[in-house]
Amino acid sequence: MASDGYLTPSHRMMAGGPSDIAQRSLMSASPHSDEFPRQLTHREAEVLDFMLAVEDPRIEPLRAQRRGVVATGRCGCGCASIDLAVDRAQSQPATICSPPIEANLNRAKAALADPDEAYGLLVFLDDGWLSLLEIWWIKKPPGEFPPPQAFHTPEVTCDRFEAALAEMRRSSNEASLAGNAHGRLHGATRALQRLLGRRPTTDIRER
Ligand SMILES: [Zn+2]
Asked: Which domain holds residue 143?
């Protein structure tokens, strides 16, 4: 899986943006329909609840949002990923990264026919509001979410992402410090050349 796809929703949704559609008719949402917005199917609800059950106080606002969630679109690739929208008047946004929760395939329990196939689950937020329940896949888009038992216990991703980002920043800082040191060495070498009035000997050589 590409890292770009990991950090941002990689699937195109067939219906429009979550907020306008969801606010239009929360009351008329019906299950098992291809019309949006609609209530979650049994499996979608099961998988979302599985993801939101992760133990972390930062997830609490998402569990509250869950009560008013509707599906507002489905991924155009044929996979089961759904756009989500919540009743923003009845809940609070979460203060947490996006995607905050992931679950990886439990290969032993998933028993996929194709050993080269893999799935993973991600929950994405839009400014702290539930916005996308995504399944990523390798070979063939799954038309339905596998049951939660096919996945390992979900995890909050933020701390790991932040650690990775900090590590990237630290590495790039070190690289720029090294660059500066290299620059200073060049400056010192040139100053010495001027003092000596000639090219440096083999003892002081610009690299
Ligand atoms: Zn898709």
From this structure: 3-156
- Tell me which residues have their CB within 5 A of the ion that is ligand 1: 11, 75, 77, 79, 81
Query: Distance from the CA of 175 to the center of ligand 1, in angstroms?
Result: 38
Residues 69 and 161 in one domain: no
Whether residue 82 sits in one domain with residue 19: yes
Tens-place pLDDT, residues 52-109: 999 999 999 999 999 999 999 999 999 999 999 999 999 999 999 999 999 999 999 9
Tell me, yes or no, whether 162 and 126 share the same domain. Answer: no
Please give the distance, rounded to the nearest whole angstrom, from the Cα atom of residue 4 to the centre of ligand 1: 15
Q: In the chain, how many domains are there?
A: 2
Q: Which letter, b or e, does each residue of 105-137 get, where b requires 16 or more Cβ atoms within 10 Å of its Cβ?
A: beeeebeeeeeeebbbbbbbbbebbbbbbbbbb
- Looking at the structure, do residues 110 and 150 belong to the same domain, yes or no? yes
Report the distance separating Cα 116 and Cα 111, nearest Å. Answer: 12
Q: Is the pLDDT of residue 114 over 80?
A: yes
